[in-house]
Amino acid sequence: MEKPNILLVTFPSQGHINPGLQFAKRLTRLGVKVTFATSISAHRRMTKNAPTTESLISYAPFSDGYDEGFKSGIDDLGHFMTSMTHFGSQNLKAIILEKINQGSPFTSIVYSILIPWVGKLAREFRIPATHLWNQPATLFDIYYDYFRGYGDIITDHISDPSYVVNLPHLPPLATRDLPSFFSPSNQYSFALTFFKEQFDILDEETNPKVLVNTFDALEAEALSAVGKYNLVGVGPLIPSAFLDGKDPSDTSFGGDLFKGSKDYIEWLNTKPEASVIYVSFGSISVLSRTQMEEMARALLDTGRPFLWVIREGGVEGQEKEKDKLSCKEELEKQGMIVPWCTQVEVLSHPSVGCFVTHCGWNSTSESLASGVPVVACPQWTDQTTNAKLIADVWKTGVRLIRNEEGIAKAPEMKRCLEVAMESEELRRNAKKWKDLAREAAKEGGSSHKNIKEFVDEVNGKVDLHQ
């Protein structure tokens, strides 16, 4: 029988491509052919920085109308999303039709968040489609409740910092713990429209399966909170070498949109165990100049070695961000500043003692799978909820407190750094989740079983079409 061929489509940003590619690798290990589709601009940068060698993964980049890429601070994000829906639908449709005409149609489609139009396209072609939710299950539940009866309560109280929202099956959430898309000052209200569309698509199916980048032990209640959907944990979706060890050659996501060097690993090798503070704010978040100065001062005040990722703006002739810091020379004596790195490799290094993070979900799940305590510095989207889970539910980190201007001052940052580096309780909890994450991913573990079950279902669907 012909192997099932799954079309896996992701939104073209690092936080979506990474888990998507890892899921593709998991599927190929179970004998499934995967065609990975994202925008032309993202694919171009992926292959330039890390050419893939996965023989069972093929690529089908499509134009989203922004073939030179979305330029943050220059392009309008709302226009980009509209363009992606229009041109993405058009061009992905052509890819699907081409496969049908070749006599080897896609047997199933998997698609990530923010691209509900892929689900509509699958329905148009009567191809079974499954949603890959690349955020925690808790966020899925919050958005579900928002669109199904709790929207007014949240909207009416979102500006009151003392208000606590009680949603079904979830811990009490202060307004600061909710996704930033609910805030009246949020400029990205279109995101809620995309999430609502996604739930509307799911509601047209009977007990639809949703694949979630989490694992059963981590979010047991959240995974079963919405009875009408079958949420299954398939995570953490990070490279095998740092998780189940089944494929020691799988040491990177294979989809980096940014260039980095490897000097930092040699530098980490010279440092004592659990002595280094690792600082990174992901592929999108940008710290204000004031916040960077406070961060720099806090790092210097700890006297500890640090590895700090400061992305370069990418504008030709622009002064590098690190060169604008007033204490640059002091910083480079005490630590190392790099423009990008393979994060999961850094977090798995024995010399790393804590992780200062924006709490994007990939960074959060990588910290859990690596057993590294966290200083949580959330900025927007799901990061605020992830920070709540880190500090109060999983208890693997400390969340910093900002002043009225939204700045975390150096003394507060230093306090959090010392707690994360010294707390035995945080380290114990971090190790517990690391062990449970590996347990879930290994053969016979909950996530491995859930992925295998999904593949069996896809195979069953193939049989039906023979």
From TrEMBL:
What keyword terms does UniProt attach to this protein? Answer: Glycosyltransferase, Transferase
Decide whether keyword Cell membrane is in the record: no
Q: Record's InterPro entries?
A: UDP_glucos_trans, UDP_glycos_trans_CS
> Does the keyword section mention Transit peptide?
no
Top-level division of the source organism's lineage: Eukaryota
Tell me which EC number(s) this protein carries: 2.4.1.-
GO function terms (MF aspect): quercetin 3-O-glucosyltransferase activity; quercetin 7-O-glucosyltransferase activity
Question: PROSITE patterns from the entry?
Answer: UDPGT
Which Pfam families does the UniProt record give? UDPGT (PF00201)
The main enzyme category here is transferase
Record family assignment: Belongs to the UDP-glycosyltransferase family.
Recorded hits in PANTHER family, A to Z, give: GLUCOSYL/GLUCURONOSYL TRANSFERASES, GLYCOSYLTRANSFERASE
List the protein's name: Glycosyltransferase
The species this protein was found in: Cephalotus follicularis
